[in-house]
């Protein structure tokens, strides 16, 4: 049985070009300290508010390869850790993305961790304390993490429910960084930088987004994200009429409910 492990060419996973990232607070300093102290990091916040961009920026800044995994409800421990595969009539071990990151000293980013099956999250526990080991049960090995390995994951408390919540035993292993929406002036600059749309128009988009965010819990599960604002700003920049761009880029994107849609369209009419 062949248990040779494929190691990666770290250069392939490096982010070459500096990603544009606009800090909101002291998140960079907190992350740098956590990295220096080998403490895993939890990025908490709604969808589309800059968590992935932040990880790309930190990966570029520290010149450490980034391995990102989008978690889903079918994600098993084997998907993360690895499995045996049949290849040319022999059995070969294939590292999963978490094992690859642990072995090669990468930053591993588990996006939307609560989506993964509960038993999956338990595998990260021994990686998150002083032991820094990953049990490879199928290989009968305990893999010691490379000194450069860093574990991060994101979590959207907005979707919180009794079924989809982080176990206290998992969350208490992490330092948490809050990624709620940036302040209005900062978010306007982000939308402007990402879309090249005139700053004044971007300020109006952010104002509208904050109106939608105030509707959360009253017909909306989540308000317009920074990502949606960037998309809408790109439509306007390319010549679409702002009112129409907001209706298809924001209102229709965040709800299917006719009453809520009408309300959002009225809001848009007051801003654009
Ligand atoms: P998520 O929180 O879902 O991971 P992303 O990081 O993918 O969100 O952000 C969505 C988009 O919003 C990005 O592609 C980028 O255009 C923009 N964005 C949000 N926050 C920032 C930020 N602080 N700096 C730069 N761009 C940002």
Description of the structure:
- With 272 residues, the chain is an alpha/beta fold.
- The chain folds into 2 domains: 2-178, P-loop containing nucleotide triphosphate hydrolases (Rossmann fold); 184-271.
- 42% of the residues lie in helices and 16% in strands.
- It is built from 12 helices and 9 strands.
- The chain has a 5-stranded parallel beta sheet with strand order 2-5-8-1-9, sandwiched between helices.
- A hairpin with a 4-residue loop joins strand 6 and strand 7.
- Helix 9 (199-213) runs antiparallel to helix 12 (258-271) and helix 10 packs antiparallel against helix 11 (242-254).
- The longest helix is centred in the last third of the chain and has 15 residues, at 199-213.
- The protein is elongated and about 65 Å long.
- The model is unreliable at 1-6 (pLDDT under 50).
- Bound molecules: adenosine-5'-diphosphate.
- Adenosine-5'-diphosphate is lined by residues 20-22, 47-53, 190, 194, 226-227, 230.
- Keywords: ATP-binding, Nucleotide-binding.
- Pfam families: AAA_5, CbbQ_C.
- This is CbbQ/NirQ/NorQ C-terminal domain family.
- GO terms for molecular function: ATP binding; ATP hydrolysis activity.
- It comes from Methylophaga thiooxydans DMS010.
């Amino acid at each position: 049985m062949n248990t040779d492990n494929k190691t990666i060419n770290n250069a392939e996973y490096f982010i070459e070009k500096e990603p544009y990232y606009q800090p909101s607070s002291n998140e960079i300093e907190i992350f740098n300290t956590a990295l220096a102290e080998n403490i895993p990091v939890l990025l908490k916040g709604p969808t589309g508010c800059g968590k992935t961009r932040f990880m790309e920026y930190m990966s570029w800044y520290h010149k450490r390869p980034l391995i990102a995994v989008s978690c889903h409800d079918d994600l098993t421990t084997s998907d993360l850790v690895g499995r045996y595969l049949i290849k040319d009539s022999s059995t070969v071990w294939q590292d999963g993305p978490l094992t690859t990151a642990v072995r090669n000293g990468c930053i591993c980013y588990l996006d939307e961790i609560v989506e993964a099956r509960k038993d999956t999250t338990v595998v990260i526990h021994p990686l998150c304390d002083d032991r820094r080991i990953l049990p490879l049960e199928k290989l009968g090995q305990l893999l010691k993490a490379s000194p450069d390995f860093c574990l991060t994951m994101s979590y959207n408390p907005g979707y919180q429910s009794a079924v989809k919540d982080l176990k206290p035993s998992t969350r208490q292993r992490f330092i948490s960084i809050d990624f709620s929406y940036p302040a209005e002036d900062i978010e306007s600059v982000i939308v402007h930088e990402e879309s090249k749309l005139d700053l004044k128009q971007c300020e109006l988009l952010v104002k509208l987004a904050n109106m939608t965010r105030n509707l959360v819990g009253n017909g909306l599960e989540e308000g317009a994200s920074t990502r949606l604002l960037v998309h809408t700003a790109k439509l306007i920049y390319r010549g679409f009429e702002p009112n129409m761009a907001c209706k298809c880029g924001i209102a229709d994107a965040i709800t299917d409910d006719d009453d809520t849609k009408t309300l959002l369209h009225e809001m848009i009419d007051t801003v654009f």
